[in-house]
Amino acid sequence: MKKDQLTCKQRVTVTFNFYPQYHQSDSVISLKKWHRQKNNLDSKSIRELGAFLSERLEHIAQMIEILQSVHEQWVVTGKRDRVILETDRFDVHLVVNALAEQGFLASDYQLFVEYERKWGIL
Description:
The chain is elongated. The chain has a single domain (9-117), classed as Alpha-Beta Plaits. It has 122 residues and is of the alpha+beta class. β2 (75-78) and β3 form a beta hairpin. It contains 3 helices and 4 strands; from the N terminus they run βααββαβ.
């Protein structure tokens, strides 16, 4: 969207899932496996889960810091299995560029954009 275009307002939502969809490794125990196996877990699977979550949460924290350094008006919401950032005052292309410049891939987060017409007809 053009910055000088006043006819549309965009709402940007960035979602950081603790368990990204691309990560389907059998070596890391998932939350569903965790709940199914909670009666017979071993120390190895608990350590694997801890290491995975520690690394993933560190990546999420880094991405949030990057986005907050380029734009301060994010609404940050924590959910059970994800963190959500929302704003309606920042261009979606700048989000992608800021994260890509620091080496993060599009598969590290989910990006949603809603466009709202301010006035006039399409």
